[in-house]
Write a structure and sequence with these properties.
By secondary structure, the chain is an alpha/beta fold. Strand 2, helix 8 and strand 3 form a beta-alpha-beta unit.
Length: 338
């Protein structure tokens, strides 16, 4: 017993310093040589971050790609279409259409034709998924295109032309945001294009990949990062990050605050909230490149897409956008060698 006490007395500060140093060295060796992939991945598997004032660590998580996120809705058929249609770098193009826009010699035909008449962009059709809002549109899609998805909404008739801002119209335009969220949750970049937006050149060349999202503008005021630009969600590009998934959730939840408004109007009302809560970086594309009838420029040496927005009624939309496509054909025949 005395021998043991004698030894404890001889264990002075130097002894404990040496022991502590050895333990610290062992911990450092484990962290260096033990593979990171074998450490706990609880942080990556946790639920998506909630919309709140975020810490630096939270914002880093929002920026990371998410491979197996929690999902409120899942459709194996749509997931399979995403897999088939995606490019090697997991990018897809989405559009949606109902029976009115899919009628013979109507908007869907003109939209698909624009890829063939464009400047070397027909290959993008291999990565386009057409979302049909009713059975008639789905059958038309299957007769003219490779990748079609039926997205009927219970309790809503989305087949006919919808009066602007009617309940069915609002249901129609909101349905796409859920699909956008699901596409991101599956790990895919997407470019959504309205079916009345005609493609002439590759719109991807106007997307800056520093931004979380790229959105068209009804009216563009010169600065692509300025949120005073009037957004148009008929052309939207988004990357599959935690941040963007949370943005989609917040956006959809905001519909409860503005139940009579469509998704574009709600985005415009909450865009500063999205910047504050999620540090969302948005690029708005000049109407010189993603054009429209709100701020028509129609410089065919620059234009990539021209959108039949700021017009009311399918008949007027079709007549005027068809005129633009005919102008493009004349320009192409004179100026482009395709």
């Amino acid at each position: 017993m005395r021998s043991s006490e004698s030894m404890e007395k001889r264990k002075g500060p130097v002894f404990y310093y040496v022991i502590g140093t050895m333990i610290l060295a062992a911990v450092l060796l484990v962290r260096v040589f033990y593979p990171a992939s074998e450490r706990s991945t609880d942080g990556l598997r946790s639920d998506c971050l909630s919309a709140k004032e975020s810490t630096t660590e939270d914002m880093e998580k929002l920026h990371t790609k998410i491979l197996v996120p929690p999902q409120e809705w899942h459709d194996d058929n749509f997931a399979l279409l995403l897999q088939k249609a995606a490019t090697d770098d997991k990018r897809v193009i989405l559009t949606d259409v109902n029976a009115a826009f899919a009628a013979p010699n109507s908007m869907l035909d003109l939209f698909l034709e624009s890829f063939h008449n464009g400047d070397n962009i027909a290959h993008h059709l291999d990565h386009l998924i057409i979302v049909a809002m009713d059975q008639t549109a789905f059958e038309k899609c299957q007769s003219v295109h490779r990748y079609c998805y039926l997205n009927e909404q219970p309790g809503s008739d989305l087949s006919s032309e919808k009066v602007y801002m009617s309940k069915d119209y609002v249901d129609l335009v909101w349905s796409k945001v859920r699909l956008w969220q699901f596409t991101l949750e599956q790990g895919y970049n997407f470019l959504f294009t309205d079916v009345d937006a005609m493609w002439f050149r590759d719109p991807f060349r106007h997307i800056s990949f520093y931004a979380d999202m790229t959105i068209a503008a009804d009216n563009f005021y010169g600065n692509p990062e300025d949120h005073s630009n009037n957004p148009n969600t008929g052309l939207v590009f988004a990357k599959p990050t935690r941040k963007n998934i949370e943005v989609m959730k917040y956006w959809r939840e905001a519909r409860k605050r503005f139940p009579t408004l469509h998704e574009q109007a709600v985005y415009d009302l909450i865009k500063y909230e999205l910047v504050s809560k999620f540090d969302l970086k948005v690029q708005y594309v000049s109407t010189e490149y993603w054009g429209n009838f709100c701020q028509p420029r129609k410089d065919f040496s620059k234009i990539s897409v021209f959108h039949a927005c700021c017009l009311v009624g399918l008949e007027m939309k079709f007549a005027l956008i068809k005129g633009v496509t005919e102008e493009w054909k004349i320009y192409k025949s004179v100026n482009l060698k395709i």
